[in-house]
Specification:
With 194 residues, this protein is of the alpha+beta class. Helices cover 38% and strands 21% of the residues. The chain has one domain: ADP-ribosylation fold, CATH 3.20.170. The strands form 3 sheets. It has a 4-stranded antiparallel sheet with strand order 1-2-5-9. Strands 4-7-6 form a 3-stranded antiparallel sheet. Helix 2 packs antiparallel against helix 3. The longest helix is centred in the N-terminal third of the chain and has 15 residues.
């Protein structure tokens, strides 16, 4: 995973504005207004997932007072989403500052879907959707018709963190991970590419 003793190498793509703040203030935080600006009309969907993440992840790694939302980083450069005009940061971060999870698990949450514990659990959930004639799974979260199922879906999202402790303890060495950071620190930067 690119770990050096108690540190891990992570990659993230960030805007020139983030880099400017990071260089000037030596630390940078994500504010709600940035998410609303970035995602515009679909920001409410993202904020639903992000707000859930914050409520849980701050119990894993303490959230600084200035942090409103997390930065997304990755253990593989391929996932960092380096776009023209953005900077690619290579970071070396103390492992105790990182919340690890699988990219595909987070994508299910972003799509407001059930995050099954295993294949049997996935099949049970799919059967329930079929029985209730629900063809668009995100309707469970976005529509007011399924309060009990909505709470089950949100409870399933706790499975996002199933690998975190195993990874931190070195029990498993996952390679394709996403990692949440409450802040970016200038001192963590190993390299910056435009």
């Amino acid at each position: 995973m690119g770990a050096k003793s108690n540190k891990v190498i992570l990659y993230t793509s960030q805007s020139p504005e983030v880099i400017k703040v990071l260089m000037e203030h030596k630390v940078c935080y994500v504010k709600r207004e940035f998410i609303v600006k970035k995602y515009q009309e679909v920001s409410s969907v993202f904020l639903e997932a992000y707000n859930w993440y914050i409520s849980k992840a701050q119990n894993i790694v303490k959230k600084p007072a200035n942090a409103e939302y997390p930065f997304w980083t990755y253990t593989k450069i391929d996932y960092a989403g380096w776009y023209p005009g953005n900077y690619l940061l290579v970071l070396e971060v103390p492992i105790e500052e990182v919340v690890f999870f699988k990219v595909e698990d987070w994508n299910k949450i972003l799509n407001l879907k059930y995050l099954a514990a295993d294949e049997k659990d996935e099949k049970m959930h799919k059967d329930m959707l079929t029985k209730l004639n629900i063809s668009i799974e995100s309707d469970v979260i976005t529509k007011p018709f399924y309060p009990n199922l909505k709470s089950e879906v949100k409870k399933s999202w706790d499975n996002l963190f199933r690998y975190h402790k195993l990874i931190k303890s070195g029990v498993i060495q996952e390679r394709d991970l996403q990692a949440g950071l409450w802040e970016l620190r200038k001192e963590w930067i190993v390299d910056i590419k435009l």
